[in-house]
Design goal:
This is Aldose 1-epimerase. The protein has helices at residues 9-22, 100-104, 227-232, 272-278, and strands at 28-32, 35-46, 53-62, 68-72, 77-84, 90-92, 114-115, 121-122, 126-129, 132-135, 144-145, 158-162, 165-172, 183-191, 196-205, 209-210, 214-215, 235-238, 240-246, 252-258, 270-271, 285-290, 299-306, 311-317, 321-325, 387-388, 394-395, 402-406, 421-422, 428-438. It is mostly beta strands and 440 residues long.
Amino acid sequence: MSVMSSVSHEKLRSQSKIEENSHTEVEFTVRKNDILLHCSKFGMFHDPKSDEISIVKQFKWINKNNVEVHAITYGAAITKIIVPDKNGQMEDIVMGFDTLQAYQSANNPNIGCTIGRVVNRIAHGELQIDGETFQLEKNSNGHHLHSGAAGFDKKNWIATNDGTHVFMSLVSNDGDGGYPGDVLCTILLYLDNENEFHIEMQGLTSKETPLNMTNHSYFNLGGHASGHESLYNHVITINADKITVNDCDGIPTGKFMSVGGSVYDFRVPRHLRKALARVPGNGFDNNFCITKGSDQNLTFMARAFHPMSGRYLEIYSDQPGLQFYTSNSMPNPDQKIHPGAISEGDSSQYAYKTENVTHLEPISLDMTHTEHEIHCEYESDSNVDPIIGKGGASYMKHGAFCFEPQKYPDAVHHRNFPSIMIKPGETYSHNILFKFGVNK
């Protein structure tokens, strides 16, 4: 289903305003094809720039298998994903908060939200278009990260629905966060009965501008509150044979590194505990260059499996990169959270078959560092109190992982990276599919 028609940018802006003014019904329930969608009020949002107040809506999908997904219009954020384990026990597997105020807190590390205009880092917050320099917010060690204070995750999106399909739209004005052009973005969200949650993003612009969006959900298949020990028991697979090399600030150098023989090689299933014990720095925060399959639409990107619960997550996307992040910057009270080194054992028992995966060469699971790896640390442990999440849960370092499909970080400064620039008349498009299941 297309999120946008080919009508003009101005017409789409007008239509968004009409929908905002006319859609006054907040609480409703729709059922179609064994999918239930319920809409309710989550809170009230005060826009500090316009001084306008708007309702933050919450949408809850439930399919015939009792899988639930919740999302709110603030930040177009996923707030809950409830799935069964191998014994039928239901558990919420994404981090989140109980209140709008918590989502708006400066302590929120972009949990569950839609990142835009540009995900990840832009070196020195500088953007050049046709010889003109645009200065963006420097909100991370002198660089621009996740679009800063004017990002899409700080906005209350307009929402409408067509049956159990939810459309969220947002207009980012020319100059927001320092970016040029009026940008209209629309996201289609829906759950199906195959336990797949679909996110389809599109965008238009009035001026040439960068656009590189993603969803920033934090997953722990043992349960959102189960912490680092549960995360260490995950088995990870990533369909990538190289990564982009970072400097000590996490900024790509423009070079690539083969993952073969390194700690970054997840082409076969690997226990996360041992990988984290060996990776330089605090954990993984790397862009993996995805190996495209024969199907040029959605490509298998990665899989996470939690043997104790039997739950697994697979992610598919049409983007060339996947940022794999292991919550390295979350609080680490008393500096006690570390995976340690244990025998990884035989991960071949977790091998699986899936569609759209190219041939992946086997590798040794007992790997040592190579001379090409990055031995500097650009994120430090935070020695502060835990972040308090849903139900009073304590969120700390290595408490969850993120699979963030996107184009490569800092692409505006590297011509050898896939471009993130769009021009008037062009449509930005990014499709994500999260597939949930159980291995019994």
